Amino acid sequence: MAEREIEILQGHELRLLRCTLCQPPSDPSSHLQPSGFAASVPPLHALISDFLTSVESGNYLGALSSDAARLVLASPDSDLSSHSPDRVYSDLLERVESFINEPSIDDAEKACRRPLPMKAWWEGSEMVEWESWARNQLMAAGSDLLGKFCYLQYIVFAKMLLLKTRDLLFEASFMSTFKIRSISWWLFRALLIHQQILDERSSSLFELLQVFKGETLGHFGSFEKVTSYWGAQLQDGEASTIVSMVHLEAGVLEYIYGRLDPCRLDLESAEVAAGLQLSVTGILGLRTVHQVEPKAQMILVANTSSKSVSGDINTSIAPDTQLTGPNVSEASDIYMTPKLVENGNGFGKNECGGVVSTLTTVQQAVVLAQCLLIEKSSPHGEMQGWDMAPYIEAIDSQKSSYFILKCFCNILRIRWESTRSRTKQRALEMMDNLVESIHKPSPGVPLRLPFCFSVYIPTIPALRNKLEKKAAAVELIKEQLSRRPNDPKL
Question: Which keywords label this protein (predicted)?
Answer without folding.
Answer: Repeat, TPR repeat
